[in-house]
Amino acid sequence: MDLEARSLQPSLKATLLAKLREYKSDLNKLKREVKRLASPNSNDPGHEELLESGMAGANSASANQRERLTMSTERLNQSTDRIKESRRAALETEELGVSILEDLQQQRETLLHSHKKLYDVDDAIDKSKKILTSMSRRISRNKWIVVSIIAALILAIVIVLYFKIFH
């Protein structure tokens, strides 16, 4: 009971500890009185009567204490059950947290892999762009060469026809 009273809120703690001290002192007084009355060298004529009344008071005090002890034990059992339930909930929460962390790790690896692939694709696009640019330049140059050759051939045909027709 002392331990339970100490674990309560400070407002209740002081009053309960004071009552507990009072009950302990009453119990000690009753025990001393019972020992004194039950001693074999007592020659008091009302010895038996006092002994019986003292035992009755001790029995009622003992029954009261038993009742409080039973209530305290019940509260302790309820607290133990709540602690077990809290511990079970904490373990379930921890398992859920571990599962979530594993999922997050897998998602992180997927994102990193996708990021690497994206950079690889970006490099490939840059290379393709360079190749297409060089091909475009070659195509433009080849067009000018073909146009130049066609113009030279047309000029040559015109010159040949001119000399054949007028000479």
UniProtKB/TrEMBL annotation:
<protein>
    <submittedName>
        <fullName>Vesicle transport v-SNARE 12-like</fullName>
    </submittedName>
</protein>
<dbReference type="GO" id="GO:0031201">
    <property type="term" value="C:SNARE complex"/>
</dbReference>
<dbReference type="GO" id="GO:0005484">
    <property type="term" value="F:SNAP receptor activity"/>
</dbReference>
<keyword id="KW-0812">Transmembrane</keyword>
<dbReference type="InterPro" id="IPR027027">
    <property type="entry name" value="GOSR2/Membrin/Bos1"/>
</dbReference>
<keyword id="KW-0653">Protein transport</keyword>
<feature type="compositionally biased region" description="Polar residues">
    <location>
        <begin position="70"/>
        <end position="80"/>
    </location>
</feature>
<keyword id="KW-0813">Transport</keyword>
<keyword id="KW-0472">Membrane</keyword>
<dbReference type="InterPro" id="IPR010989">
    <property type="entry name" value="SNARE"/>
</dbReference>
<dbReference type="GO" id="GO:0006886">
    <property type="term" value="P:intracellular protein transport"/>
</dbReference>
<feature type="region of interest" description="Disordered">
    <location>
        <begin position="58"/>
        <end position="82"/>
    </location>
</feature>
<comment type="similarity">
    <text>Belongs to the VTI1 family.</text>
</comment>
<keyword id="KW-1133">Transmembrane helix</keyword>
<feature type="transmembrane region" description="Helical">
    <location>
        <begin position="144"/>
        <end position="165"/>
    </location>
</feature>
<dbReference type="Pfam" id="PF12352">
    <property type="entry name" value="V-SNARE_C"/>
</dbReference>
<dbReference type="GO" id="GO:0005789">
    <property type="term" value="C:endoplasmic reticulum membrane"/>
</dbReference>
<dbReference type="InterPro" id="IPR038407">
    <property type="entry name" value="v-SNARE_N_sf"/>
</dbReference>
<dbReference type="Pfam" id="PF05008">
    <property type="entry name" value="V-SNARE"/>
</dbReference>
<dbReference type="InterPro" id="IPR007705">
    <property type="entry name" value="Vesicle_trsprt_v-SNARE_N"/>
</dbReference>
<feature type="domain" description="T-SNARE coiled-coil homology">
    <location>
        <begin position="68"/>
        <end position="135"/>
    </location>
</feature>
<dbReference type="GO" id="GO:0012507">
    <property type="term" value="C:ER to Golgi transport vesicle membrane"/>
</dbReference>
<keyword id="KW-0175">Coiled coil</keyword>
<dbReference type="GO" id="GO:0006906">
    <property type="term" value="P:vesicle fusion"/>
</dbReference>
<dbReference type="GO" id="GO:0031902">
    <property type="term" value="C:late endosome membrane"/>
</dbReference>
<dbReference type="GO" id="GO:0005794">
    <property type="term" value="C:Golgi apparatus"/>
</dbReference>
<dbReference type="InterPro" id="IPR000727">
    <property type="entry name" value="T_SNARE_dom"/>
</dbReference>
<dbReference type="GO" id="GO:0000149">
    <property type="term" value="F:SNARE binding"/>
</dbReference>
